[in-house]
Amino acid sequence: MNSQEYIEVAIRIAPFSEENAEIVTAEICGLPFESFTMEDPYLKCYIQKELYNAQELKVVMSGLEGMGFDVEFSANLMPAVNWNAVWESEFTPIIVDRKCTIKASFHQGLKKTRFNITIDPKMAFGTGHHQTTYMMCRALLENEEQVRGKVVMDMGCGTAILAILAAKMKAERVYGIDIDAVAAISAYDNARLNRVGNRIETYCGDASLLQRNSYDVFLANINRNILIQDMQTYAHSLRKGGLLFVSGFYVEDMPMIIGTASAAGLEYVSHDSIDNWCCIKFSK
Hints:
single chain; alpha/beta; Alpha-Beta Plaits; Rossmann fold; seven-stranded mixed sheet; four-stranded antiparallel sheet; 16 strands; globular
């Protein structure tokens, strides 16, 4: 049983925006928080009760002074929750174009597809946007020749679904980066669970880590504002002839994303959409 008492820290951000919330997350990600959610005007952060230190948090957040927005926080004890049970109740298997199955270890008796991925997160506050995950997986599957034998980056890797799929598709090397330390650790563990850990490296951090290498295929399933903010960095780290796949935004955001990518030297190739969520393919 994975039953544990957690503290919910609600950080009020004024004025609130996704960009400001991302800045706050980056500032406090060195503390042992396990998950973050945005609920305007709050960034809500979750940490095990025995690991919470209000004074330590206050010191770290003092680094946000002069950033152009104000923050204040409150902390409340949450009831003990069996997060494994929450995960099991919320997560259903995803089957992408009858070629790839994404499941948890407790899913038994599923029909095998060509690529089978097992994901066991450390903690669940929802299971993410299946539409964007589905489209990014489909994009990889449709570009298998460009993935095989290549170097792949999964930016904002989360539980490493895309990184694992790329490795199973015979990418030579796969890297994953996530700003959430628990996600980065979960990605590392999931890579090994799927027996591709020898070809996947995961790191906790942001786009500044991209300068360490260059990539043939770049995957970024994040959100519109981060994509726009970091597009130039993505493009710079992409090798000539490489492919960039982005998702995590709505169809109406396409012109903004395409314009930013074009300014960074990338060429629009095609796009996909499900339930108004969008995925775009670019080339360099």
